Amino acid sequence: MTMSLRRVVLLAFIVLLPVIEGVSQQPTPSAPPQTPAPQAATPAPANGTAPGATFTIQRTSRLVILDTVVVDAANKPVAELKREDFHVEEAGEPQNILNFETAGAHTPDPSIDIESTADLDRLAPRAPVNIILLDEFNTRFEDMAFARYSLKKYLEKQPGRLPEPTILIAVSLQNFTVLRDYTQNKDQLLSALDHHFAVLPWQLRQGAWVGERYATAFITLRRVAQAVVGHSGHKNMIWIGRGFPSFDFTRAPIDTETRVNTAVQDCVNTLRDARITLYTIDPAGVMVSPAEYGRAAAFNEPFGGNYEFNRLAAATGGRTLYGRNDVNAEIGTAIQDGANFYTLTYRPTNTSNDTQKFRRIVVTVDRPGLKVITREGYYPQRGPGKVDPTNPSRRLVGDLVAAGDSGMVYDGVPITLEPMPSDPSTYTVHVSGRGLNWSPATETEPRHADLILLVTTFDKKGKELKRDGKTIKVSAPATVAPTGRLDRDVNLIYKVDRDPKAVRARFVVRVSSSGRIGTVDAMLGQPATNTPPNSPPKSTQTP
């Protein structure tokens, strides 16, 4: 995306911080054009129930999944605890642990090699992973260089095959770059690191860019969470950098801190839903620059006096690591924690759905001298806001643009892509029924699923050429049961406009009822790439 467009998206996100998705907002210039109907939408054969058949209405209550690390007095993980050693309280009430998994329960088998998101979801759908992110927009250039040196130093000491699949990402104000998709090959990560050159973040010295730097942090957290939510395993996100810029809220409008706090809470919920634990590592070591990070950072607050980024780590069950020059050891601590977590599952006894009341979680163990690290709690889940095709919310626009512009594979909705043999510029987008939610039937309307399809084309240098978005409503036939589970695939037909400069197209599908997103890329005139795995066979219906 161009810099001007990116600034529009960032500024839209800043304005949106206090707004819940679905509240009517004026569309921004970056909003994808949307029309009420698709070019074609062909449901695949139904797995429904014949008319007159009986059906059961099922009601389910939420489960809380806690990924918990237990450390001793030396901050070393303790891995031999049993289910009966743990006790959980939520909102002051004891909870019954329904499921318990020991550390390393889903580490990939040594015979499996993970080299992409597709491999991960197909071969090890519950494996724990590491997401290493280099913050290059709130970190001074010298500290960025030291972060790269420290990460390289850590990797060089690891075996050739890493136990957990790892993805490497670098983020600046201009670019969100996946340096290497999931891999267990340390040499691949080292090569990607060696071929990445950071740009001097001159915006650190410009006060006018503080808002964009805050927004970039929030957008980055959201886009990573939305991209990986389809993978059910635990994700250890290791953020190497400052996170938020230094900012004195006493000199800002009275509601600015409230807006930031609201965005922080939204990020906590988004990370929780994606099962992400955030670790923040300060690469400045013991020598912090007051000119770059603020006086508070040099004397009493390691992250520049802005407590919110520290809160993000603590709230998700991670840690904030700082004040040491052996940053490579801090990276090792974060990765070691991610390989030694216990998973506890319970169903809350308090069924209140008050979205304004924080549900604090306390986990203890019977053995003395041990410390339990887990997320602090949660707010009851808010569903995604309704989609207004004529007046989409700015957050919705931001999420779609981020997915369309990203180098990450979004696996929240399983989709595959197939060009038509008779017309290679026309594609069948196959959406798996596993990622769809169907509304109950009413007296006047059959069951339906609401989707958004966004298609973005790029030239050979990766520059965006065109973006086209459509809202799609797919109805199920009257032969299916009016309620209950419906596993029904959908095919969407889309024709890419001919453009001699276009070499790649990214297809983004968002399910309106869940907010989940799936992506697939196509090299125009060639078979689709980075196709998500475990997708059902293509529909044989004629488009």
Report Rg. 23 Å
The CA-CA distance between the termini, in Å, is 32 Å
Globally, the shape reads: globular
Which structural class matches the secondary elements?
A: alpha+beta
Specify the helix fraction band: 10-25%
Beta content comes to 25-35%
Largest sheet, in brief, is: 6 strands, mixed
Write down how many β-strands occur, each being a DSSP E stretch of 2 or more residues. 23
Mean pLDDT: 80
Q: Low-confidence runs (pLDDT<50, min 5 residues)?
A: 1-60, 289-307, 531-543
Question: Strand order within the widest sheet?
Answer: 8-7-6-9-10-11
Question: How many H/I helical runs?
Answer: 11
What does the model show?
The protein is an alpha+beta fold and 543 residues long. The protein contains 11 helices and 23 strands. The strands form 5 sheets. It has a 6-stranded mixed sheet with strand order 8-7-6-9-10-11, with helices on both faces. Strands 19-18-21-22-23 form a 5-stranded antiparallel sheet, covered by helices on one side. A 4-stranded antiparallel sheet has the order 1-20-17-16, with no helix packed on it. Helix 3 runs antiparallel to helix 4 and helix 6 packs parallel to helix 9. The chain is globular, with a radius of gyration of 23 Å.
